[in-house]
Design goal:
With about 475 residues, this protein is of the alpha/beta class. The protein has helices at about 5-15, 50, 80-90, 105-115, 130-135, 145-150, 160-165, 190-195, 200-205, 210-225, 235-240, 265-275, 305-310, 350-365, 365-375, 395-400, 420-425, 435-440, 450-465, and strands at about 65-70, 95-100, 120-125, 165, 170, 175-180, 180-185, 230-235, 250, 255-260, 280, 295-300, 315-320, 330-335, 335-340, 340, 380, 385-390, 410.
Length: about 475
């Protein structure tokens, strides 16, 4: 618990002066690699280490070289995130940004490691695990548990999520929070006018499952036959698969396993097929919940909610997770995992672990949670006075409930971290898209036996490369 009281006091102090949400730190900045930055990168892309003195070391052991397609330092006019404030003010830390692009970041990371350049920290995304970890791009965080504050209690609720990413007994990915759950946005005003139960109430009563969803859509369509009505719009295949609690690719901590013959995977595919073939689904892309009230549910992550509210201020919108598979033992969800990776051969491993502790404290401290809620529920308007975006307090509380690990269980399908043959999108043709996309596609009807016969050998081939 070293420094924990001092750190907690710093959080409380930070709450008094920091008015932006923790998530503001992840806004993407200019990733043009030819731009000169404070990281010491010149027009040729030379890093600070390349142009420093012979020692090539920063002045402080708490300096981190952050290679990413976005900067966690604030842009001009922005406030620092809570985590960065703690890292800088409590530990005299510094994050030096090494810009790259989303497309090139893994190639550049490997190149920097091979060249012995100063790179310490890297953003987590699905490609990190198992691909990045098994390609030996990252180092385990287990030796730095004291710097992470693992014995302080702040990580207790995340233990199950952390263990989900354990590899051969070590922890390379240590999520400090989960975010961006897949949800369904709906109008309570529309539900009431159609005589349909409120999905959120069903969730609270433990009755929100696939059967309830299908029953609602059937009633919505039958209430006004012959009228163009859509049950669900948006992307939900990944959430449907996750709601079973099962994965296409399983992992036991040592080896990957093809799970394509699991009947629960087939059940999820059958659900998406039924919704499509019954004419309940529209593939028309929408950024917001439709204003014409001809759609019952908009499927997406929660990023569409603020702008949907602005487009539909009188609709009384609410969100609910994708419904539970009727046989599932828990409420399983698909979401993002918030983490920072320790780069292999980092000279500043303790500093990276300390920064990750600051992220966890910012995500878990009740004082900061309150401050984040205050910012998130602030109504933003255009100069004309019209709504730009907003989230109501009730919606925000619901979203927090849907990411509460005592109420939901996140699912990560390891197939999403296994390269283009598994995850590639390619052109819109059946023979170029990856296995995971084909399985969860909601726009095209699927013959499950044909999908299994086509992609199970692909999955076996990919798994063999990692297991070997």
């Amino acid at each position: 618990m070293k420094d924990f009281k001092r750190l907690t006091a710093a959080v409380i102090a930070a709450a008094a002066v920091i008015s932006t949400a923790v998530s503001c730190s992840s806004k993407k900045k200019d990733s043009n690699k030819e731009k000169t930055t404070e990281a010491g990168q010149n027009a040729e892309g030379t890093t600070a280490k390349d142009t420093s003195d012979s020692a090539g070391k920063p002045d402080t052991s708490m300096e981190i070289y952050w290679l990413s397609d976005y900067d966690i330092n604030p842009a001009e006019g922005e406030k620092r995130s809570t985590a960065l404030s703690l890292f800088e003010d409590v530990y005299n830390g510094k994050v030096t940004y090494l810009p790259t692009t989303a497309e090139d970041k893994y190639t550049e990371l490997a190149s920097q490691i091979n060249a012995g350049a100063a790179v310490d920290m890297f953003p987590y995304d699905a490609k990190v695990f198992p691909d990045g970890v098994m390609r030996d791009l990252f180092a385990p965080l287990d030796p730095y548990y004291e710097d992470l504050g693992m014995d302080s209690g702040i990580w207790d609720e995340m233990s199950g999520v952390i263990d989900m990413f354990a590899y051969k007994g070590q922890h390379y990915v240590m999520p400090y929070s989960i975010s961006d759950p897949f949800v369904l946005t709906y109008s309570r005003k529309l539900m009431q006018s159609e005589g349909i139960d409120d999905p959120r109430k069903l969730w609270q009563e433990g009755k929100w499952d696939w059967n309830a969803l299908k029953s609602m859509i059937e009633k919505f369509k039958s209430n006004n036959p012959g009228t163009y009505r859509i049950g669900i719009n948006g992307w939900y295949g990944q959430a449907a698969l996750a709601s079973t609690g099962h994965r296409v690719v399983e992992f036991d901590g040592n080896t990957l396993k093809n799970n394509m013959y699991d009947p629960e995977i087939a059940n999820a595919v059958s659900l998406t097929n039924d919704i499509l073939l019954n004419g309940w689904y529209s593939a028309n892309w929408r950024d917001t919940f439709p204003t014409d009230f001809n759609t019952l549910f908009l499927a997406s992550t929660d990023w569409t909610l603020p702008i949907s509210n602005a487009a539909n201020p009188e609709a009384d919108l609410m969100i609910v997770p994708f419904p539970k598979e009727p046989n599932a033992d828990k409420n399983y969800i698909s979401c993002n995992f918030d983490a920072r990776m320790l780069v292999k051969n980092s000279d500043n491993s303790n500093a990276v672990a300390t920064y990750i502790k600051c992220e966890r404290l910012a995500a878990s401290d009740e004082t900061m949670k309150k401050k984040t809620k205050e910012y998130a529920t602030t109504v933003h308007k255009n100069q004309s006075g019209t709504f730009r975006s907003f989230v109501t307090e009730e919606q925000y509380d619901a979203l927090m409930e849907y990411t509460d690990l005592s109420k939901v269980t996140p699912v990560f399908d390891y197939g999403y971290g296994m390269g283009d043959a598994m995850t590639g999108y390619g052109a819109y043709t059946n023979d170029t898209r990856g296995a995971m996309y084909r399985i969860t596609d909601t726009e095209v009807g699927k013959d499950w036996e044909a999908i299994k016969n086509t992609f199970s050998p692909v999955i076996d081939e990919q798994i063999a490369q990692y297991n070997n």
